[in-house]
Specification:
By secondary structure, the protein is α+β, with helices and mostly antiparallel strands. The radius of gyration is 21 Å and the shape is globular. It has four domains: about 5-95, Rossmann fold (3-Layer(aba) Sandwich); about 125-190, Dna Ligase, domain 1, CATH 3.30.1490.20; about 195-220 and about 230-315, ATP-grasp fold, B domain (D-amino Acid Aminotransferase, Chain A, domain 1); about 330-409, ATP-grasp fold, B domain (D-amino Acid Aminotransferase, Chain A, domain 1), CATH 3.30.470.20. The strands form four sheets. It has an eight-stranded antiparallel β-sheet with strand order 13-12-9-10-11-14-18-16. A four-stranded parallel β-sheet has the order 3-2-1-4, with helices on both faces. Strands 5-8-6-7 form a four-stranded antiparallel β-sheet, sandwiched between helices. Helices cover about 30% and strands about 25% of the residues.
Length: about 400
Amino acid sequence: MRKTLIVIGAGLESIPVLQRANEMDLHVVAVDANPQAPGFACAHESVIGCVYTPEKSVAALTEWSQKGGKPQGVICAAVDAPGTAAAVADHFDLTAVSEETARLATDKKAMKDRFKKCGIPIPWYQEIFSAGELAQILAERRETLVIKPVDSRGARGVLRLVYGSSDMPDPAWAFECAQKESTTGRVMVEKCLDGPQISTEGFVVRGKAYCPGFSDRNYEFIDRFAPNIIENGGDLPSFLEHGEQRAIKELSGQAAIALGIENSMFKGDMVLHEGKAYVIEMAARLSGGYFCSHEIPWNTGVDFVGTAIKLALGETPDPEDMVPSFQKGVAQRYIFPKPGKVLAIEGVEEAKTMDGISMVEIRTAVGETISPATSHPARAGVVMARAETRGQAIKQVEAAVAAIKIITT
Ligand SMILES: Nc1ncnc2c1ncn2[C@@H]1O[C@H](COP(=O)(O)OP(=O)(O)OP(=O)(O)O)[C@@H](O)[C@H]1O
Ligand SMILES: [Mg+2]
């Protein structure tokens, strides 16, 4: 009999996960609060429920199951909602992370407390309760800090406070900016660790970690978007030395296990600071931004989403399926038009036909307004290139981005 998979999230970036589930001949049930969610077209059944409110998703799925539905697995697709996957798994007795792991993975302070307890290298951090406390910490520590909401996502309200710089934001403004993005009004600061930033993505299977996903993150616009920290895509394979990559992969697996992940996937924000690997954050879900669905398979041959779905169904993937079989070039860049009203979008068809270009996705339209880039979801489009080498892929993606013109007022 065909197995039934519940997919939490049916937005644009959820589509590759929904499609992979279809290819695996599963009966696919998608959950999203938006009745017009584009991913619903790739599901056999659509359930309306808020993915960020576990009780609402569970209630909507309970109603669905009362009409005869019976799931064998649950997975989040491009939504940071491990708590919902955990609650659904608990309700239907499926394999996913526990609700405690989901809590640790979505509360940046609780996560860092756990890492500290387990001896996982992390930046210095502290929860703060006022702008005055922020000003005091800056005066005492005299170093560059990152202020962030304890429980948000997509880099909303995450600001880099460069110690001694002339454009250091006012502490009151910075505190408020981070606080308003937190659902619980909680804010924390961390030491800003400089050095190459890396995204990792992998699996824990029966307590053993595999980390096939490894991408250098591109922060070329750190000054342009300051004090916000906005990533402009990434490059694979990494430029880091083999030993450095191994250390970062190993630490990613240890951090995932420290959060209690046992038979599921993880996604790490890592940094190599003064030659040593540190964890900035570890998520207990699949990545967004097409990392798991496109970049990792193109780079390594690993069917990341397919393997994650197998795990979600309670199956044990073959270890060989989680290990890269090659290292090909992949580069991803985002499009950041000047803020204003979109008057014209040009060069998209040309970009799509350029050498190596494997995806061009424009996320705006004429007449829409481009806001300043203060978070990751605000990016206006994404372009990806694949080539034999990393250098070639970078050249190709940059040429395609240059060919696309989003003209604003
Ligand atoms: N202490 C730090 N040192 C250096 N860089 C940091 C630090 N904290 C955050 N960053 C950078 O800012 C990015 C966003 O921070 P963080 O991951 O905490 O927020 P987020 O809202 O979860 O963002 P995302 O969803 O993009 O991961 C990180 O991925 C990292 O590149
Ligand atoms: Mg993060």
